[in-house]
Every structure is written in C-alpha cells, then in structure tokens.
Specification:
This protein has helices at residues 41-55, 100-112, 229-246, 261-274, 290-299, 309-321, 335-338, 367-375, 387-391, 404-416, and strands at 5-11, 27-29, 59-62, 67-68, 78-80, 116-121, 125-126, 131-141, 144-148, 153-160, 180-186, 191-197, 222-224, 250-253, 280-283, 305-307, 343-346, 383-386, 421-427. By secondary structure, it is an alpha/beta fold. The protein folds into 2 domains: 5-122 and 229-427, Glycosidases (TIM Barrel, Alpha-Beta Barrel), CATH 3.20.20.80; 131-224, Beta Barrel (Elongation Factor Tu (Ef-tu), domain 3). The strands form 4 sheets. It has an 8-stranded parallel barrel with strand order 2-3-6-14-15-16-17-18. Strands 7, 8, 9, 10, 11, 12 and 13 form a 7-stranded antiparallel β-sheet that branches. Strands 1-19 form a two-stranded antiparallel sheet. α5 links the parallel β15 (280-283) and β16 (305-307). α1 (41-55) runs parallel beside α2, α3 packs across α4 (261-274) and α8 runs parallel beside α10 (404-416). The protein is globular, with a radius of gyration of 23 Å.
Length: 431
Amino acid sequence: MKYQQLKIKYKLNKTPKLKSTLKNFTLLQFFEWHLPNTGTHWNTLGEQCKELSDLGITNIWIPPPYKGGSNSDVGYGVYDHWDLGEFYQKGSTRTKYGTKSELTEAIQSCKSYNVTILSDIILNHKMYSDSVEYFEVVDVNPQNRNEEISSSHNILGWTEFKYEGRGGKYSSMKWNYTHFTGVDYDNINKSTGVYKIIGEGKAGWSPNVDKELGNFDYLMGCDIDFQNSEVVRDLNHWGNWMINSLELGGFRLDALKHIDSKFMYNWLDLLLSINDPDLLVIGEYWTTNLDILANYINNQHKMIKLFDVPLHYNLYDASNKRNYYDLTKIFDNTLTKRDPQNSITFVDNHDTQPGQALNSWIQDWFKPHAYALILLRREILYPCVFYGDLYGIGGDNPVPAKHSKTIKRLIHIRNSWAYGDQIDYINHPIL
C-alpha cells in the first residue's frame, strides 16, 4: 500500500525581514467549554497577555461576555446583551468570566502589548426570560420547518425580557414575543416542539438562512426576528456600543447559518462604516459545503472571513485513517485552498471538543501535525489556536494538553521565522 507524506521546507534568513511590519497573524481562542466558574477568567487574560504576545499571539477571541441564565453560563444562553457583568441579574453581577470592569482592564492590558481582542457575538437567540406570555403559533415539522403540522393555537411561552436589574441603562428596550420568530416550549402543556410565532405583524421565518431542514432559522430558545424594526434598531445600537465601550478590534459571529444574511450584511456594513472598515470579522457557518461558504463570503462583500470547516474535517479524517490518508489531499475542497484571504483555519474548538454537539476531536497523535499544517504554511494567513490544546480541557472528563509545548514552539516559529519562501515535496514510501 502506498501513502504520501507531505513535507515542508522554508528558506529562512538568519533574521526575518520586516518582522515588525509583517508580523504573522495568529489568533487564540481563549476559552473552552468547561472553564471553572470562578469569575476570574478576565483577570487571567490580563495577567497572561504579555506572555501570549511574546509567544506570537496577535489576536485573542474571548467568550461571550454578556449575561446568561446564571453565572455558570458559558455565554451562549444569552439573557441580556447589554449586561457585561455590571448589573445584578439572574442571581449574580459577574458573568462566568468576571465583571465588566475586569474585562475592560484585561482588554486594555492586551492592547498595551499589541494584542487585539475579538468578542464572541451571539445574535441568533435569547434565553432565560423573566416571564411568560400568551401568543399565537403554529407547530412545524422539526425536520422540515416549512411544513406546518397544526392549525393555529395559543401557547404560553417564556418570551418576556424585562431587564429590571439594568433599569433601562444603555437601552430601554424590553423584549417580548413580537421580537421573536419561534420558541421550543409551551408552558401550558409542558411540551416541546418547534413553534412558529404567527399573528399581526409576523412574517414567519427569516428567508435568508441555510436551507437545511427546509429553513434553518430556528435553532434554540427565543429565535430573534431580524425582520422586526425594533430588533434591528436595538442590535445596531448595541453593536456600535460593544465596539466602542470595549475598544474591540473585531467580532467572532456565532451560528451564521441561522441568521438572516441580509440583516447581517446591513449590520456589518453599518458598524464598519461608522467605526473602522478594517475591523476583523470572523464567522462560524458550520457546513462542509464549500460552495455555500464561498457564496456567503461573496454575498457579504467579503466583510467577513469564515472558519474552514471542511479543512477541520479533513484533519479529523487524517487523524482517524492514519497511514491510509493521503496527506497531499489535506487541503482539497477547503476554503483555504479556494479563498485563503477569507479563511480562518483551526484544528479544534469549543464545539468540537469531546462531549459537545459537534464532537469531532482530532486524535492526540495527529495534533502536532495538524498545527504544523495551519501554523507553518505560507498560504495560511489566519490560523486559530484552541485554548484546550494549550491549557487542557476541564469538566468531568478532563483532557490534558499533551502537546502544549510543541504547539507553543510552532507559534513562536510562525511569529519569528516563517517569513521565507516555501518549498513542498512529497515522498512515496511503500508500506
């Protein structure tokens, strides 16, 4: 049996030319799903930013910094976008990661070492409302959201967000069922399903979303209605406030396949035009369909770069197939190969780590090879390193970071030396 091994050589000068002006980009995802609920993560970030900068990290992606259902929420169960750990709501002032003042101090510390902060942005849904409301819905087929499977009827849904703890600071908007397209729980019958909200002023699911399950607008919780003018106005205001109050250098956008793409275009166009057109915007559109990814980037006028999900699964396949995998094809059918300027490469993340919904963890033996592929190749412009691979994963089934030293060494090489010409060559040993 033949296998092909891909090797890389660099022609390196003793000192990399123009390092100060052409420093290679390296993004660090500074969290994993099972971080301890100590409220000290922002302080840790501030303490470690110098070391990370010296290592070669240029940008850091922080977890969602706003209030969730409790101070143990990872950040994706959004309760109040405007509360960054400043108000006593949902049983706590701080978030899982700390307070707003601690966050702003950490960001300023990072900026002093020329490290740019990107905040995780969750626009798809809200959760953990304050009270219930009666409203009209129709049940839809969970496997085909365009198929209505009931007549209209009323349910009692958790859709009223009052934000009494914030008292109207920053935004006076209080959310109710008219601001959402759907929910998944009826408090009358104590039943779950996919309930599309109908009635006066409701246009149904957003049309400009992924076509998986017919229409993949609805994902979870109270699905935000981007066809509602009050919603759009408040989110426009909030996005600008986030950039300026935290002095962000960009965003990581979550769950793009579920968010109306026309809204997203208008939202980004507005924020980049009134702030910095060079703000870095990266997004998660979870599909291996390369055409869908490329079309999304083009339709957004290349204001956004997307994670290279197809490359992740190529790395995953290589780690499982071992010597049965042809490494010369590792970049085939990837966003990196088609559009490297708009591709964010990664090995693993908080969704692919063990126990998560998209569990596709790269096997341990292949981790150094995978990181070498995304950190040392000249055509890969925007690699992302996962917190769990540098510091380990916690929780009930912890995963140690066995290759942390190797990955740090690769980051250092990328930062200090990976600026020369690149030569690829292939061996063909017989097994």
